[in-house]
Amino acid sequence: MKLCSIASGSSGNCIYVGTGKTNLLVDAGISGKRIEAGLSELLVDAAKIDGILITHEHLDHIKGLGVMTRRYGLPIYATKGTIDAMLATKDLAKTPHELIHEIRADDPFELNDITVNPIHISHDAADPVAYRFTSDGRSVAVMTDLGKYDEYIIDNLKGVSALLLEANHDVNMLEAGRYPYYLKQRILSDRGHLSNDTAGELTEVLLSCGDDLKTVLLGHLSKENNYDKLAYETVRMEIGLTGERLMPSLTDFRLMVAGRDKRSECIAV
Ligand SMILES: [Zn+2]
Ligand SMILES: [Zn+2]
Prior knowledge:
alpha/beta, about 30% helix, binds zinc ion, 9 helices, globular
C-alpha cells in the first residue's frame, strides 16, 4: 500500500492512498486542476479513483470535490453529518445521490483490496472522521483536524506502519500571532487542531506501543502559525530522535513534513 500527500495544510488537503488495484483519495480540498496534476505525477488516472473519502465539510477538505465529481463521476464516502453539511453548500448541492455513500465511524468497509476504518475525531465540524486503511496485513492512517487525542485514538492507530499526522501550529507562534482571540481559542480548544507538541507526544506514545510505526509524515501545518523546520524539530525533540537517546526502535524510523503545495514522497508499506 502507498500513502502520499498531494497537498496538506490549513489551505488545502488531498491525500492519496492506494494499492496496485485500488486508488483512493482522502479529501479534495484543493482545485480540481491541482488534484489532477498530483495524480498524474503518481501515474494515477483521475478517472480511475475508486473513492474520495471525506473527513469533514470544512473548505480546506472539499474545495475541489464538486469539480472532481462532476468531471469524473467519482464515488464519495462520508458520514451523515458531513454529507448533510456538504449538500448544504452551493457547489455540492446538486451532487447526484447515487455517488454519495454514507459511512459511520467504527464501522469498517471494503473498497476492493483495502479495508477502510473511519475513526471519530474531536473537531468543530458536523461529524468528522479520520481514516485507517488496511491491505495485505499492513495499515496506514490519515489523522488530521483534531483538537485532542485520547485512548480511543491511540487504540485506532496502534500497529500502523505509516501515519500522516497533524502538526498544525506552534502554540507560542499562535498565541503571539495576529489571529483574533476567538480564532486562537478555537484552534487551541479540544475541537480545534493538534499542536506540534501534541503531535510529538502522540508520536512518542505510538512508538512506545511497538515497532510497527516506521514513518510519520507531519501535515496540516498552519501557514500563519508554523513552519516545516519548527514542526519537524519539535516532534523530533519530543520523541528523542537525537544522538544519545536514540532508541533501537528508532534507527529505521523516518519523520517527514508534508508540503502545503508540493507532493510528498510516496511512502510504501
Ligand atoms: Zn482542515
Ligand atoms: Zn477542519
